[in-house]
Specification:
The chain has helices at about 1-25, 40-55, 60-90, 95-110, 115-125, 130-150, 160-170, 195-210, 215-225, 245-250, 290-315, and strands spanning about 30-35, 35-40, 180-185, 235-240, 265, 270-275, 320-325. The chain has eleven helices and seven strands.
Length: about 325
């Protein structure tokens, strides 16, 4: 009887130690960043939606290799995140729940969505609301730190603006250049929580701002529903045969610098601007003053991104980082 009891005790003990070993493996350290650590469970939580997407997309023969690359990319992102958090702590930059709530409300307002819409979208991406809020907190923290550390150092001079104008507006290669267009759009339908009349009103409000001299890029960034809003409405250069019929009808009567009226399509109202056209041997371009604000915004964004990359590289170089993936 005593021997039986000892065997049971040994089996229980062995099982308990095995469970501990498994938990320890699941939570082993994958990186040390100065005085902070990153565990395997953190990496798995951050990467789970991306892992699932990769499993569905990658060929079986390449899955293991691609999965390891993805894990390394996610770990690199987490290391940058830790460095940013450490710098934010130095400046006592904090993000409250109210900050996160406000960011969510702003995003929903801009996209005319609801919390239910957001939760459905997160579910399709395999993200919980808690994970989303955590990611959002990190993004807000990064944005504030960039404003503090990076953007104050960005300098956009008139020389840089003039050079950008010369390279991107006046040097377009003649008739081969096609039409360089800016676009903003105002969508309607159930998924956009807006009626056609409401979309029309939004388009008319935007057109009024343009007629009063507002920058097309600024207005597009502020009110357009299209993905091109991030670039001030810039959708690039189109040849005549690439234009949609509704675009061609409007654009062929316009010259460089012209802004269209409100154009109705089956799903939205649009306003277009021709930055340059194929009307002359060397291509025509809008006056510098007409596009200066858009150029300045674009250069500010480009230089800010370059300085941020340099700043992160310097943080990494001066940090103690040990990886063990």
């Amino acid at each position: 009887m005593r021997l039986f009891s000892l065997l049971i005790l040994m089996l229980i003990s062995f099982g308990f130690q095995s469970s501990l070993a498994k938990a320890e493996i699941a939570d082993r350290l994958v990186a040390v960043v100065n005085n902070d650590i990153i565990t395997l469970s953190e990496l798995n939580e951050e990467g789970e939606p991306y892992f699932q997407a990769l499993i569905k997309q990658a060929p079986t023969a390449q899955l293991q290799h691609e999965m390891q690359k993805l894990k390394q990319d996610i770990l690199s992102h987490l290391i940058d995140q830790r460095l940013i958090e450490q710098q934010a702590a130095k400046y006592d930059i904090k993000i409250s729940d109210e900050d996160i709530n406000q960011a969510i409300e702003t995003m929903l307002s801009e996209n005319r969505g609801t919390m239910d819409d957001l939760k459905k979208d997160l579910a399709t991406k395999g993200l919980s609301e808690e994970q989303y809020r955590k990611q959002l907190k990190s993004q807000i923290l990064q944005a504030r730190l960039i404003n503090y550390e990076v953007r104050s150092k960005v300098v956009v001079t008139d020389d840089k603006i003039n050079q950008y104008y010369k390279d991107n507006y006046t040097s377009l290669p003649g008739s081969a250049s096609g039409y360089h267009l800016l676009q903003m759009g105002f969508l309607w339908g159930d998924q956009y929580k807006r009626t056609q009349d409401e979309a029309r009103n939004a388009a008319e409000s935007a057109k009024k701002q343009l007629d009063e001299g507002a920058s097309f890029g600024d207005v597009a960034r502020s009110v357009s529903d299209l993905p091109s809003k991030e670039d001030g409405g810039d959708i690039g250069i189109f040849q005549e045969n690439e234009l949609a019929p509704y675009m061609k009808e409007a654009i062929l009567t316009m010259k460089s610098g012209d802004i269209s009226g409100i154009i109705e399509t089956p799903t939205e109202y649009q306003i277009l601007k021709v930055l340059s056209d194929q009307g002359s041997a060397q291509g025509s371009a809008p006056p510098l003053m007409e596009v200066k604000k858009d150029i300045e915004t674009q250069l500010y964004k480009q230089e800010g991104e370059q300085l941020f990359k340099k700043w992160i590289t310097e943080l990494r170089a001066n940090a103690f980082i040990k990886q063990n993936l």
